[in-house]
Amino acid sequence: MRLSREKIVHVSHQLVDVLVASGDVEFVEDRDTIRQEIVRILQTLLKEEEKVEAEVRRKISTHKKEILEGSEEWDILYRKYYTEEMRRMGLAAQPERA
User: Fold this and answer.
1) Could you state, in order of their start, the residue ranges of all structural domains in the chain?
2) Which of 13, 38, 46, 65 has the fewest CB within 10 Å, making it most exposed?
3) Burial of 1 (C-beta count, 10 Å sphere; 0-12/13-18/19+)
4) Nearest 5°: CA angle at 71, between 68 and 76?
5) Distances 44 to 38, 40, 71 between C-alpha atoms, Å
6) How far apart are CA 96 and CA 98, in angstroms?
7) Cα angle 42-43-48, degrees, rounded to a multiple of 5
8) CB atoms near residue 43 (< 10 Å)
9) Dist. CA 20–CA 14, nearest whole Å
């Protein structure tokens, strides 16, 4: 997902507002410090997601058969490889083994 810096900042303000409105949260830092950390975390996660997407697209492009983006086959492979990469990078839960 691509978000502009402005949108990320907007989301950080909304998150801080929700935390402030919640009676269950006690702030040990000032709100702006918390908001800035939220921005940093979101930016880091979005950069990681971009790396995952690039790797997924690379994997799909290495198939012998050309797979057209938007086709059902491409969508299936994209979801499969995306999930695998997210797990490999520790950004998604590993499946439970029976």
Assistant:
1) 5-88
2) 65
3) exposed
4) 110
5) 10, 6, 30
6) 7
7) 95
8) 13
9) 10
Q: For 10-31, how does the pLDDT look when each residue is reduced to its tens digit (9 = 90+)?
A: 999 999 999 989 888 888 899 9
Contacts made by residues 22-25, CB under 8 angstroms, sequence distance 24+: none
Number of alpha carbons in the 13 Å side-chain half-sphere of residue 76: 4
Could you count the other beta carbons within 10 Å of the beta carbon of residue 34? 18
Q: Determine the pLDDT at residue 96.
A: 62
Q: What is the mean pLDDT of the chain?
A: 90
DSSP track, 29-80: S-HHHHHHHHHHHHHHHHHHHHHHHHHHHHHHHTSSS---TTSHHHHHHHHH
**Gap between the Cα atoms of 45 and 39, Å rounded:** 10
- Residue partners of 4: CB distance under 8 A and separation at least 6: none
